[in-house]
């Protein structure tokens, strides 16, 4: 750290890299120093805009000694490898979700962060989301989980990155929609088994597709069922999603108009509770600055629990049977 600022290198030069670069421009704690991109056009352009140096590949950048932290903004299939290499070179790491495309890489990343005493955070923002923290408080008084269910329908029209609907690069929807699984794991803990089904329409040899349905069901270690349904590329005017957390003492519901809790005494809206950090990057930077590893280690373990579900769901879809989750 130079002059108290955490010196950052970003890997990638697409949408998320641009967002992070813009935010670092106004950050008092982090300073963007370098952009590594295999795409010279977008990489040079972004580096120039942010007054950062351009590095033609991430393998070179993670070795550079004037960097304290690496922010990984590449497609899903490269996160694990870049996270591991960055940690091995003694960098703190912030990675866009999912933590990794394989469980093996995810486990190695989590273990190296601990052995190297580095702060590794995945971009799951629930630790800094006021409503999520309020839900956590609420469910503490509602007893045992019966079922947590989630449904999302996404229209086919409109632009979407091609890499998203691609099994090899992004994983199945259960994996690239990991940000619907993580919050449930954060609230209800690890799963002990997973069942899953999938339909991919117009699947090509390069594993791209146009329409999909993924369903995933888990049994939580602490009791209760979790269930997710995603359908994408479908004929619906606009995206919709529905959450239901049914506990034996009450039910939390959100169908797009905000969270409500329903108990014997009636229905109430969930009131957000205030949190300290404005974003998960902000939280990561403060942890790096204070060398505060504990909360990030717990959170990385949850991100790993979440990809246990999405990646073993992929296995369950392939094998067409229930798969136990062994930790
Ligand atoms: N936190 C959030 O709210 C949020 C929102 C959207 C996405 N995400 C996550 O953020 C990540 C990036 O998404 P995005 O929308 O920014 O994607 P994007 O616009 O497609 O950008 C991806 C960037 O990574 C580069 N890249 C891809 N694979 C690479 C590899 N194997 N090695 C080196 N560079 C590689 C691409 O280079 P090329 O130009 O050469 O392909 C491009 O510069 C994804 O993992 C996604 O899940 C998070």
Attribute tags:
327 residues, alpha/beta, Rossmann fold, Dihydrodipicolinate Reductase, domain 2, 9-stranded mixed sheet, 6-stranded parallel sheet, 11 helices, 28% strand, binds NADP nicotinamide-adenine-dinucleotide phosphate
Overview of the structural elements:
By secondary structure, the protein is α/β, with parallel strands linked by helices. The protein has two domains: 6-124, Rossmann fold (3-Layer(aba) Sandwich); 127-277 and 308-324, Dihydrodipicolinate Reductase, domain 2, CATH 3.30.360.10. The protein has helices at 15-24, 40-49, 58-61, 76-88, 103-115, 130-139, 167-170, 173-176, 178-188, 280-289, 294-319, and strands spanning 6-11, 30-36, 53-55, 69-72, 92-95, 120-122, 145-155, 191-201, 211-220, 225-234, 240-247, 250-254, 260-263, 266-269, 323-324. It has a nine-stranded mixed beta sheet, with helices on one face. A six-stranded parallel beta sheet has the order 3-2-1-4-5-6, sandwiched between helices. A hairpin with a 5-residue loop joins β12 and β13. The longest helix has 26 residues, at 294-319. The model has no long low-confidence stretch (mean pLDDT 96). It binds NADP nicotinamide-adenine-dinucleotide phosphate. Residues 12-17, 37-39, 42, 73-76, 78, 96-97, 123, 161, 163, 176 line the site of NADP nicotinamide-adenine-dinucleotide phosphate.
């Amino acid at each position: 750290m130079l002059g108290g600022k955490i010196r950052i290198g970003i890997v990638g030069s697409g949408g998320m890299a641009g967002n992070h670069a813009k935010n670092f421009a106004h950050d008092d704690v982090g300073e963007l120093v370098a952009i590594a991109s295999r795409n010279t056009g977008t990489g040079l352009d972004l580096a120039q805009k942010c007054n950062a140096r351009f590095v033609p590949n991430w393998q070179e950048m993670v070795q550079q000694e004037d960097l304290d932290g690496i922010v990984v903004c590449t497609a899903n299939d490269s996160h694990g490898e870049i996270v591991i290499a960055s940690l091995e070179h003694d960098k703190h790491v912030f990675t866009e979700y999912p933590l990794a495309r394989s469980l093996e890489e995810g486990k190695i990343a989590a273990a190296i962060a601990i052995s190297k005493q580095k702060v590794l955070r995945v971009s799951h923002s629930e630790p800094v989301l006021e409503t999520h923290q309020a839900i956590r408080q609420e469910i503490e008084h509602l007893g045992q989980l019966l079922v947590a269910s989630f449904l999302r329908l996404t229209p086919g029209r409109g632009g979407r990155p091609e890499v998203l609907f691609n099994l090899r690069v992004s994983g199945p929807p259960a994996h690239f929609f990991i940000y619907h699984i993580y919050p449930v794991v954060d609230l209800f803990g690890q799963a002990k088994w997973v069942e899953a089904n999938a339909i991919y329409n117009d699947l090509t040899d390069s594993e791209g597709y146009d329409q999909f349905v993924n369903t995933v069901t888990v049994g939580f270690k602490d009791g209760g069922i979790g269930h997710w349904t995603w359908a994408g590329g479908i004929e619906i005017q606009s995206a919709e999603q529905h959450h239901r957390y049914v506990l034996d003492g009450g039910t939390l519901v959100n169908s797009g108009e905000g969270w409500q809790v329903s108990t014997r005494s009636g229905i109430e809206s969930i009131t957000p509770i205030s949190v300290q950090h404005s974003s998960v990057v902000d939280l990561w930077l403060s942890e790096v600055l204070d060398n505060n590893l504990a909360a990030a280690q717990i959170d990385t373990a949850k991100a790993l629990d979440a990809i246990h579900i999405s990646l073993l769901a992929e296995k369950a879809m392939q094998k067409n049977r229930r798969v136990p989750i062994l930790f």
